[in-house]
Amino acid sequence: MISAVGPQNTKKIKKNDGFYTTPELEKAIHDSHAHLVSGNPLNQSRIQVDKLFNAMTVYPAKGLTGSPNSNFYEFLTMGTVPYLVGSAMLMAVFNLATKYFEPNQAKHARELGHKMALGVIFYGLMKSLSKKFIEVPVYLKTGVDINTPYKDMKSQLPEYPGDKEGKKSVEYHKVFESVDFPRWDLLYDYKKDKPRNYYYDRVAENMGLGKDLPASDQVAKPKIREMIIRTRTWTTLTSYIWAGLGVALAVQDGWNDLLTRKGGGIVKRTLSMIKDRGKGFGEFAKDAFLDTKEAFKTSCKQLYNGGVNNSKLKALAGRAYIYTAVGTTLAGIFMSAFDFFNDKTEQDESKIDYKDDYTVG
After folding, report:
1. Predicted confidence band at 279 (pLDDT cuts at 50, 70, 90)?
2. 166: which residues sit within 8 A by CB, 6+ positions away?
3. Cβ neighbour number for residue 150 with a 10 Å cutoff
4. Average pLDDT over the chain, rounded to an integer
5. Does residue 207 surpass a pLDDT of 50?
6. Which residues contact 116 (CB under 8 A, 6 or more apart)?
7. What is the distance between the alpha carbons of residues 256 and 289, in angstroms, rounded to a whole number?
8. Which of these, 142, 167, 184, 163, lies nearest to 36 by C-alpha position?
9. CA distance 72 to 175
10. CA distance from start to end of the chain
11. Residue 39 gets which letter from DSSP?
12. Do the beta carbons of residue 152 and residue 47 sit within 8 Å?
């Protein structure tokens, strides 16, 4: 609750643009509207967990009960649930039938099933993480983070007669979620102690468009839009290549000791530790990390050298796939961060120079 400005809190009063306000009032106004939030990995993970929890609990309940506040954002967010459920089912299908085989056959089926399940995990991880291979260099070059998140507050309709009015729900979006309609407004006053166009000033300078421009926002916006289109095109293309590489890595024999043989396999060791209520977790985590590191290293070598038998054909295919993934990623970085196909004549033919000041009167 926001208290009125009075003698009890006069020490907190400050003047802002001709109006008297308090830090509490400013924060309340700020939090009640769409605003940028931190895009660091920890906060991004927290946002994803929050969206996933709501997608599995809150949003389905609202939709099934016919809530007037269900919207398209909630529908799209729930789209992640089938992927997770489908992945879990795929992993289960690969492994549940092994107990029906003969002992010798079951051993090989179990190894193959575990590697296929690992392939499902690696597919998702590599497809997601590989996008950062391009997005991070683009950010370092241009200063534009295409995943900049913001928090939006949506007013809710009463769910039933007598329901409390004025309730709000939280939605997490990205500033450049829509290429056609980015939330440019959220990038003004990017930092309180900086000029209003500070964000666009910095981006324009990083992109080589000029320094100290009178209207840097008008100059930078079209270039930012073009850069986002290029970046998303290349990240989409390369993500599937890296996802396939993750699957190829997962089916190497270097994982056998970790998944099946050593100490009963990491899955059985994990279940045993849970059964013992976490006893010996520190030692287990250390061993699991070292074993996983060794298995990953061995599998990378096997993929590059052609498996345990050093097959020349497999080595050729593995190396070609690795070089393709690395090559397309490097191409994506340069093609996204640099505007090689910029039409230089467009500005030359214009009668307005955006580097000069103009007065309309």
Report:
1. low
2. 155
3. 18
4. 83
5. yes
6. 91, 94, 250, 251
7. 15
8. 184
9. 17
10. 47
11. -
12. no
